[in-house]
Structure formats: C-alpha cells, structure tokens
Specification:
The chain has one domain. It is an all-alpha fold. It is built from 4 helices and no strands. The two termini are about 10 Å apart. Helix 2 runs antiparallel to helix 3.
Length: about 120
C-alpha cells in the first residue's frame, strides 16, 4: 500500500476519531467538566476507535500483541505532547479552551501519523 493511500485513509479515520474525541471533550466541558479532565476522557474514547480503524483499515496490520503494545506506548507519548501543548496554550495565551483543544489535537495528529506509519503499523 502506498504512503499516499495510507495518508488518505489515516485522514478519514482521523476525521471520524477527531469528531468523536472533540465531541466528547466539548460536551463534557459544556457540562462543566474542567478542560484537562474532559481531554483525558475524549482521548481515551478516541484511542479505542483509532486503534481499531487504523489497525484494520488504514495500515491493514495483522500484528498481534506487539502492535497493541507499540500503539499504547505511542498514544501515551503523543498524548503527553498534546497535553503539554494544551497546558501551554491554556496558561500562556488568550485563546479560548475550545480553540486550544483544536490546536493541541492538531499537534497530536501529526505526531500520531508519523509514529503509526513508521513504528506501530510498519510493514514487515
């Protein structure tokens, strides 16, 4: 499978995953949950969706536990980067928490694709 096809599939999965994750984050914030707590819940939910779709469709990986373990480590690393960006934006900018969430998700997504393609779901 070509890198371009994987990138297109990743983008489609990402749009769905981002919609689910941000939807949960924004709903929880609207309900009064603090932004950082809402972010954790949104990312945990999105992580399950992302793993299933990226493993089965985007990268068509048949790998077993090694893939799942690499995925969990990658998600944790990308999430920590996301959280660092979110914290920086919330603490040092005048952006709304909603815009800050979008920007942090963008950084997460770029990191996520590169690591998914070349580390987690790499071709054998």
């Amino acid at each position: 499978m070509t890198l371009l096809l994987e990138l297109r599939r990743f983008a489609m999965v990402g749009l769905l995953n981002t919609g689910v994750g941000l939807g949960i984050i924004w709903l929880l914030m609207w309900l009064g949950v603090p932004p950082r707590s809402a972010n954790v819940v949104g990312f945990l939910t999105g992580g399950v969706v992302s793993y299933q779709l990226n493993r089965a469709w985007t990268f068509r990986s048949g790998g077993g536990h090694g893939v799942a373990a690499r995925f969990m480590v990658m998600v944790a690393g990308c999430y920590l980067l996301n959280l660092a960006v979110l914290n920086a934006l919330l603490n040092y900018s005048n952006l709304s928490a909603y815009v800050a969430q979008v920007l942090a998700v963008g950084v997460y997504s770029a990191c996520f694709f590169v690591l998914s393609r070349f580390v987690v779901f790499r071709s054998s």
